[in-house]
Amino acid sequence: MIIVADDSPEDWSAPGVYRVAPGVYRIPMPLPEASRLLAVNVYALVEDTGIVLVDSGWAMQGARDRLAASLAVLGAGIGDVRRFLVTHQHRDHYTLAVEVRREFRTPISVGIGEKDGLELAMVAGRLHLAAQAAGLRRHGAGELADTVLAGQAGVDTSRFWELPDAWLRPPEHIAVAGRTLQALPTPGHTRAHVVFVDGDAQLLFAGDPCAAAHHTVDRVRARCVRPPPARLPRFAPARARAARRPAVAGARARARTRTSAH
Ligand SMILES: [Zn+2]
Q: What is d(CA 98, CA 108) in angstroms, rounded to the nearest whole number?
């Protein structure tokens, strides 16, 4: 694995370390095949004293090794990760951070509004997506509920979640790797989804700003976030489309991705 420029949208999900900007690298992380999604991007911000990761990846077989191999290209190990800044609580963004913390005590931060959802996810014996499926059935979407639950029956995922070390209370500023990130609230995808904006470097770490761009875009040029923060939730989806990375072959495949994973 070597560092390459982040200019190949066709291969955006291929394992590697992609240079986004000075000191900023994109690391595509694996997702379960059943998710029908190609990858989720983790961003490494390199500083003298270690590495800060924006999002972590899904705690699954092979993910930790992928992260370790990618960080090795940057001359670091998983133990050099100084902090996780997580955009939202979903499994593909949050749970590998929990796994890493169990070994290295790496602190995790996520938006304060995710507290209820995280506490629910941590309830032992709670079946993954059961509540969402029940809601779908209540509203007459039984077939979709069956699709959502396919392969999930009887799976207790509570062990993958724990509470973070610190709650983000956006808008707030965070000093990272010689830069200042502003955490801005972008509720919608989850109750307390946040994005991280580096205004100086013109970078926006957008997480999952909208279903249409799901996992296809995590970075857009930050000319798009000049409007007041309060307007960002309305602003982000359009900008995310503008920077979309092709993730799947056609519109039908894209539509399928919207019903999966979350
Ligand atoms: Zn998500």
A: 8
Q: Please report, for residues 46, 173, 195, 203, the alpha-carbon distance to residue 181 in angstroms, rounded to integers and kept in the order given.
A: 14, 6, 9, 9
48 Cα–ligand 1 center, Å: 30
How many A from CA of 92 to the centre of ligand 1?
7
Ligand 1 centroid–CA 234 distance in Å is 17
Here the contacts of 226-231 (C-beta below 8 Å, separation 24 or greater) are: 229/171, 229/182, 229/184, 229/185
Tell me the domain boundaries of the chain.
3-122+161-258, 123-160
Any bridge partners for residue 205, and if so which? Answer: 196, 219
Neighbours of ion ligand 1 (CB under 5 A): 90, 208
Beta carbons of 207 and 190 less than 8 angstroms apart: no
pTM beyond 0.90: the answer is no
Helix, strand or coil for residue 86? coil
pLDDT tens-digit map of 208-251 = 864 333 333 333 333 333 333 444 434 333 333 222 343 333 33
For residue range 72-116, what is the model confidence (pLDDT) as tens digits?
Answer: 999 999 999 999 999 999 999 999 999 999 999 999 999 999 999
What's the CA-to-centroid distance between 214 and ligand 1, angstroms? 8
Class of the CATH-defined domain 3-122+161-258: alpha beta
How many whole angstroms from 5 Cα to the centroid of ligand 1?
26
